[in-house]
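Amino acids appear as letters; backbone shape is given numerically. Here is one record.
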Amino acid sequence: MKSEDLKSIVKEKYGKIALQIDEDKSCCGSSSCCGTGVDYTVFSESYEKLEGYNPDADMNLGCGIPTDFAGIREGYQVLDLGSGAGNDCFVARAIVGDSGKVTGLDMTEQMINKARENCAKLDFKNVEFVLGDIEKMPFDEYVFDLVISNCVLNLVPDKSKAFSEIFRVLKPGGHFCVSDVVLKGTLSDKMKKDAELFAGCVSGASEMTDYTKIVKDAGFLNLTVHKQKEIKLPDTLLSEYNNAAELNSFHAGERGIFSITVSAHKQK
């Protein structure tokens, strides 16, 4: 499937989520996945005890809490990629304070509108939400101290472009910290080709070694994996996309789906 077709699928999917007209919140969310009716809260983690948490902005679409490991400081300029309804942005804003700024970037208009509504209710003057594409960000070079993202980069068709753009917009000495989905081994051809699984953060994920290579090839240093958790998909779902041998490879640990939180730095 072409890159633009994949992006259209993702925009449509997450546009519906933002409008609350589709109970399916994807494999990264809290409701049914890919039409199967299976609960996938195993991807998301609770933000409820974090300063800055706003329930209206939490759509349970993450696969970690990147702000926990991001080393955010007061006064930082922070960019959140795939900012959704603003959940991670508002948590980051609680740390950067009035002297910093948080920018959310999302390609889905409905998500941007929802985030702006949430921001208006909070009356934050140093949080903004921008419509745009991660593969071609609408920002100048050397703008941000930190880039964060939560369960979004796996949805970007060209991950090399994404990390090159992250590198471009970071200041010298800046860093990123993202939570994402990666693979051990490869998915079956049927899983790779399924558009719903792509929108659900599974079939668009990269193999772990490929992922780290993309990061390093973009120019980043000191790559650190802070957290890794295996995501156990039920056999009722896996059996729809895998033959017996492929299913056994999941059971044997030869294949797997993991959420990770990873950071790396741009040289000063």
